[in-house]
Design goal:
single chain; 443 residues; alpha+beta; 5-stranded parallel beta sheet; 33% helix; binds ligand MV4
């Protein structure tokens, strides 16, 4: 096992990773920016290194700074958390060159799945259903041909996109050429890669993702699915496991597809296969996330498995100590992402001092946060300040537990999304469980 791990992240996820390291007897190195001197992850780690100025580009995203911190402190491995450098193939490669274990899949797998077009081809070849569409579009002639074949409405997507960036909807052939050039320009400036492909637009879909855990010896387990359709402008607000829209036979099919996806690329570590699920219960591969996800706690609650501990163990070369038959999916978990944003002002991010904090508690209530009373939230980073997760035997009971926990939560000093989520959970649209990714459109 690694004696020392550097956590290349901040906020609640850095705290989450440090906790698992502590339980495993691994010593921890925090890195922090000049804006994060008083951050919780810094006080919880055994050692800490300031790696640069407040903007993430000058600190948490600076590969030489993060690697130097690992080298000078003698850390044998780096946990990237989510976001930041977690899906950066170049960073994973640099870690390898510095003889530091990147806790995640190989640089090659990160790169292959980061190319959304290649990922789809790999999955199609592996027998995973993918959204109908075409390969990269290289000319206007090919664009028109493929557009006519796919039919309308369709989507133009960036090869290097993901998370909803660089997408254009096209409703009619007259719009195609303009959308193509504007998508290419946006992708070029956002990702430094203007390559695009097209897909049939699937409407009224659910976003369901399947959690994988794989070791370096070829063992793969599927750890249930997550319902992630409750989102606004590609920011997820509420996640649950299991999905209220997935029955046992559909679940078995989706797990089988996710298993084939993992096998196709010799996947190592934790990863997520994202599917779109249509109203007629057909599912299609959309992309694969080669990292731990924000919403991983709902999976931990229904499986009883600590995903971060297993990430570390498989990165150290240990074999999974359990098989698929040992995975029991039990009860229902719900997560609310609490963002420091004002819903009354179009979800404008709010920074500032947390004047009063009361954390909800009780059995099967989990609150993942890096907040503490009098902490000053800096304006430079993501606005997610906490995740409230509950677990109960049934969905109805989990909903009631979430409502009670949200009601108990007090965060004063900054506006946050908690009250809005409390209202949302009370809506029939949420309670019925049939909501799609379009549910919050216009709000
Ligand atoms: C789609 C789609 C419908 N049809 N592709 C948005 C994020 C990016 N990963 C892909 N996205 C979508 N791709 C086809 N062919 C609908 C979405 C989509 C979506 C997907 C998952 C979660 C939220 C979403 C919100 C709007 C659109």
């Amino acid at each position: 096992m690694f004696p020392k791990i550097l956590i290349a992240n901040r906020g609640e996820i850095a705290v989450r990773v440090i906790r698992s390291c502590k339980e495993m007897g691994i010593s921890t190195v925090a890195v922090f920016s000049e804006a994060d001197r008083d951050a919780l992850h810094v006080s919880l780690a055994d050692e800490s290194v300031c790696i640069g100025a407040a903007p993430a580009s000058q600190s948490y995203l600076s590969m030489p700074s993060v690697l130097s911190a690992a080298i000078v402190t003698g850390a044998q491995a780096i946990h990237p958390g989510y976001g930041l450098l977690s899906e950066n193939a170049r960073f994973a490669e640099l870690c390898e060159r510095c003889k530091i274990k990147f806790i995640g899949p190989t640089a090659d797998v990160i790169r292959r799945m980061g190319d959304k077009d290649e990922a789809k081809r790999t999955m199609r070849a592996a027998g995973v259903p993918v959204v109908p569409g075409c390969d990269l579009v290289k000319s206007v002639e090919q664009l028109k041909e493929e557009g006519a074949r796919i039919g309308y409405p369709l989507l133009i997507k960036a090869r290097s996109g993901g998370g909803g960036r660089g997408i254009r909807r096209v409703d009619a052939p007259e719009e195609l050429e303009n959308a193509f050039f504007s998508a290419r320009a946006e992708a070029e400036s956002a990702f430094g890669d203007g390559a695009v492909y097209m897909e049939k637009l699937l409407e009224n879909v659910k976003h369901i993702e399947v959690q994988l855990l794989c070791d370096a010896h070829g063992n793969v387990v599927v750890l249930g699915e997550r319902e992630c359709s409750m989102q606004r402008l590609h920011q997820k607000l509420i996640e649950e496991s299991p999905s209220p829209a997935v029955d046992a036979s559909l679940r078995a099919e989706m797990f089988e597809a996710a298993y084939r996806a993992a096998k196709a690329v010799n996947y190592e570590g934790v990863g997520t296969v994202e599917f779109l699920l249509t109203q007629d219960k057909k599912f299609y591969f959309m992309e694969m996330n080669t990292r731990l996800q924000v919403e991983h706690p709902v999976t931990e609650m229904v499986t009883g498995i600590d995903l971060v501990k297993w990430q570390i163990r498989v990165a150290a070369g240990l074999e999974l100590s359990f098989a698929q038959k040992d995975v029991n999916l039990s009860g229902h978990a719900i997560e609310c992402r609490i963002n420091a944003e004002n819903p009354a002002e179009n979800f404008r991010p709010c920074a500032g001092k947390v004047k009063l904090l009361h954390v909800p508690g009780g059995p099967w209530v989990r609150f993942d946060t890096a907040l503490y009373q009098d902490y000053v939230i800096p304006p430079f980073y993501d606005s997610m300040i906490a995740k409230l997760i509950v677990h109960a035997p049934t969905r109805a009971e989990a909903i009631r537990k979430m409502q009670a926990a949200l009601c108990e939560m007090v965060i004063e000093g900054v506006e946050h999304t908690g009250f809005m989520q409390s209202d949302l959970i009370a809506e029939r649209g949420f309670q019925e469980g049939s909501y799609t990714t379009e549910y919050l459109n216009g709000r």
